[in-house]
Specification:
CATH superfamily of the domain at 1-185: Winged helix-like DNA-binding domain superfamily/Winged helix DNA-binding domain
Strand order of the largest sheet: 7-9-10-11-8-12
Radius of gyration: 35 Å
Structural class: alpha/beta
CATH class of the domain at 1-185: Mainly Alpha
Helix content: 55-70%
Shape: globular
Number of strands: 14
CATH architecture of the domain at 1-185: Orthogonal Bundle
CATH topology of the domain at 1-185: Arc Repressor Mutant, subunit A
Number of helices: 38
Distance between the termini: 50 Å
Amino acid sequence: MQSDTPDGALRIRDLGPLEVERAGVPVGLGGTRLAAALALLLVHAGQHVGVGALSEAMWGAESPSRSPSTLDSHVWRLRKALEPQRERGRPSATLRRDLGGYRLVTDAATIDSVRFAALADEARELLAAGRPEDARRTAERALALWRGQPYAGFADEPWAVAAVARLTEVRDQLRELLAEALLSCGAPERALLALGPGLAETPLRERLWSLRMLAQHRLGRAEEALRSYAEVRRVLLDELGLEPGTELRELQARILAEDPTLAGPGPWVPAAPTVRSPAAPGSGAAGGGGPVEVHLPHRVSALVGREQELAGLAETVPRRGLTTLVGAAGCGKTRLAVEVARTLAGRFPGGVWFVDLTAARDAGSVLSTVVSALALAPADTARPGAAVRAFLRDRRALLVLDNCEQVLDPVADLVDDWSRVPGGLAVLATSREPLEVDGEHVHPVGPLPPPTDDGDATASPAVALLLDRLAATGADRRDLGLLSAVVRIATAVDGVPLALELAADRARAFTLEEIAHQVTADPSSLARMGRGSDHHRTVRVAIEQSCAALPADEAALHRSLSALPGPFTVAAADGVYRGTDGDAGRTADLVARLVHHSLLVPLGPARPGGRSRFTQLATIRGHACHAAAADGPRLVRSRDAWVAGLVRDRPPLGHVTERAWFDALDDDLPAVRATLQHLLVERPSADGVWLAGRLGAFWYFRSKTVEGRAWAERAIDHEHLADPLSAALVRLTLAHHLCSGGDDDLAGPHVAAAFALLDGSGHAASRVVAEVLTLLTHSLVAAGGPDAAREVAGRVRAAAVATGTDPELDLFADACATLAGSVDGLGTDEALSGLHRRALQLGNAHVALLVAGMSVVAALRAADPARALT
């Protein structure tokens, strides 16, 4: 939404958790007391607030009295937050001193609650003036400001209760006004969507039910409208012991009487109450002006987080013969399909039918299920295929075929057959893979996006869905710990709607923290708590339906991938699946098939020209782990062996192939991390120390030195398990990371310990040690440790002399000596140029870049910037 405040202006967001922004940047208030003071001033915006009231809000009624100077110092800090650019001694333009108190002075654009109330008044006036489209836009702008309970954290304070109640009532009235405006604009399907949140939160507001019934009636769903009346009557009797009011009773009577004055504007024509009267085969009666039949499952909850998809599909489905919603188990394909069909009912005068194919297993049972859903008379079923074709002839109808994955071929044959029947039939199918029929439009349905690290958690559709379902269980949205736990749950289940729904079911039995722990351990174990269909009773069973028909090799790969806890490449998949007898081409085919079956999510390359990566949703990985339980240790060993092989293939420092090695590690970094976790934390071993000692260059050159330092410190705890070379490499790697971060004083003991391990081990002159020492020399010089740098450079020189035949070791030794000498200004331009030529001749880009950097520094020291640029 476009901001209503000028660039750089102050904005106070009080319709939810209290936040202050300037130019879109959050401003810290510096503690709860200042936030309480600001909340009180906002409640009385523009009015005098006494010193006593402020003190009580900040310190409580029972706290000892405070001196005026104490309060003044806090007010000064609050002014500093609200007006950081105010000049010293200049009066505050926002928080003014009043006689015996203070007053918050701002314009309407500054405070969300003030602007919210103003927009609400404007929307009412626009609707009363017969401008429903303008009223709709204004109401939506107002509701977009609402982020939760006003003054969250202080809403229960005596001084805030009345203001919170007033704003909440304005919000509730706005919801009703928005639905009324949408109905007046001729958009009953959007009005139904807008009414969902209000009905879920305030089910006793009769006006919402009245608008819902009217919207349903204008969509040609009079039968649903009458069911809504029965539902609200039951709610009112159960909760209040009252019958519905006059408005609801009169609307029910008018719907039953088919009152033509209930018709709305635009193309929507009200339909009479549905009376099932099948047309004779071939009559085409349903394609004319008769009653619209809508046979869809009853909606038990609002659709949350799919508004854009719903709008897009509402445009696409009527123009296509076949639209297939494809996605993994539990992603909400059925729920979305039903809502699309409900929204489109008015555009299919031939009727809308829902066909559940969960129990179908062959062509005969598919056709039988379709016949039953259409309620064809027995005489029509002697030749069921012909009877269905005759029934659909000349009908502008919509069929929803749900759960097609286990009967793909029979369903594809039927849809292909129906495509030749005149009349404009549209089919909306749900499946875990496409039907692959000519003209099919495939719409992927993925999980709801979980919250991101840098975004507003409440803007996440996954969080919104979970909060909506938790509200139905009685969860207190004012609980400050609620959002944190909800974010953990939504993230742990990758935003899979079924898992979110089942997690919310558990809120009656467990705390949200307990549920977060449960789903983090195994999201596939979630199960339905109460009544309901056995279909998708547990997440694991839902996924098992996808896996049951997999060929043996695909099922084996599905289980094997449970050892890769994150994005991975085909190479990693092949490593855990086939081990040393790999066949990446064959594994790539299997990966593609699992993507086709919605058991893998394709992520694409991490960089242009990189390798494609894939991942299992957390729920699917949970199923794979359960299925591979007996084989789990072997799969972990295969993964660890593959990671060790990848690290063992490390190119020499500075060579052109080093970048490709860094990219390969980046692409499969989750597997590398999982192996380090297994070998350094879960089951510490010499192999873990070996890995940590050989990944130093990767952590450094890919700007992950903090992580590299953490793993090196872990490895040092277990260095007694490893050989001297690996232990020494870990120590030197840690020293390098410490120096790179400016902690060279901490590096010295690790360098000394490494040299003690190397002396007498026979590895002091090895190439891998010389490479680490070269990196360490550079970081020591940069950190300002010339003596230590010279000592390390001397070790590289000794290694080069001991080997005697490796020109690159000589290059490293000369480069380190020049680096160490550069601290004292000993490096000459001629020597640096010679080193640079040697590095290029040997193909060592690292030393060439290092020497070029030294040349720049030398030129700048000589006040010769032109040579530095060269």
